[in-house]
Amino acid sequence: MRLLLALLVLAAAPPQARAASHWCYQIQAKPSNYTCLGPDEWEGSCQNNRQSPINIVTAKTQLDPNLGRFSFSGYNKKHQWVVGNNGHTVMVSLGDMASITGGGLSTRYQAKQLHLHWSKAMDRGSEHSFNGERFAMEIHIVHEKEKGLSRNASQNQFAEDEVAVLAFMVEEGPKNVNFQPLVEALSAIPRPNMNTTMESSVSLFDLLPEEESLRHYFRYLGSLTTPTCDEKVVWTVFQEPVQLHRDQILAFSQKLFYDHEQRVNMTDNVRPVQSLGQRQVFRSGAPGLLLSQPLPTLLAPVLACLTVGFLR
To answer: Where is the Alpha-carbonic anhydrase domain positioned along the sequence (predicted)?
Structure first.
């Protein structure tokens, strides 16, 4: 009898109470295969006003001369990384083998994990967007402040820059051989809570654009893009995209699943764009970063002047 009463109480509870800790992406909430909270119902800090991701309007960004080059430590070390399906994305565990300084950051940050967001559509898989334009995928390398570098650790855990995320857009292009070990590892982790090890060694630099292009980036303060959406992230969103072949991009949607029964393909694991509010987005100080207008439009006045001068 007590068990029956307990079940009746649970059945009468609102969906939020039954699945308070079970969050999902919108594509999972739609099929109603199981009860989960879509992005509009995410809890924690997810409904606050300094959230991520955002749409970056490049013409409205502000130049910050302090946003110089990064110094990457351990990014060139090749390793057979452990790769896992955590039910929301594919995650590469980085241990304590890499770190970053510079780039306008206040201190050294230790790389902890790399994960990705994607879609079957080549213009719907990134979380951030540039001038309303989205990309096929987005790579996040998540770093945390090195322990012991803060005078007050208890206060530091609530700092707005406790976590530093480097974000890279991914667009369709030629086959990327450096990315292939990660793509091949997907077949071994179709279901949540499965892990494998890459068969070939790769470095973090192997997965990213050329280091010289990493001077060009945008910076703002925001949040984690998954619950509990803690507002403690200093975001660096790089302008230069990574290029993968279409088949490599689609492999993530085809080989991975949200559920143990392999009924719901893992795709569109993207949080909707959030309001920028009163925040300012900054851009690095490297020249030639922005082309807010098409190149022919910018060159037209110059060509006109040259033509007039020639005719004289």
So the answer is: 21-285
Which domains does the chain carry?
A: 1-41 (no CATH), 47-285 (3.10.200.10)
Query: Alpha carbon of 141 to those of 154, 171, 240, 293: distances in Å?
Result: 24, 17, 15, 31
* Closest C-alpha to 56, from 245, 246, 236, 261: 236
Sign of the torsion angle spanned by Cα atoms 79, 203, 237, 283: positive
> Does an H or E element contain 155, and which?
helix 153-156
- Considering only CA atoms, which of 185, 219, 226 is closest in space to residue 83? 185
Give the closest residue to 145 by CA, choosing from 118, 102, 106, 184: 106
Residues in Cβ contact with 69 at an 8 Å cutoff, skipping those fewer than 6 apart: 102, 103, 214, 215
Q: How far apart are CA 174 and CA 50, in angstroms?
A: 37
Name the CA dihedral angle for 167, 169, 173, 176, rounded to a multiple of 10 degrees: 10
Residue 88: active-site member:
yes
Choice among 22, 79, 88, 143 that is catalytic: 88
* Contact by Cβ (8 Å): 19, 42: no
Each residue's pLDDT tens digit, 2-12 = 433 333 333 33
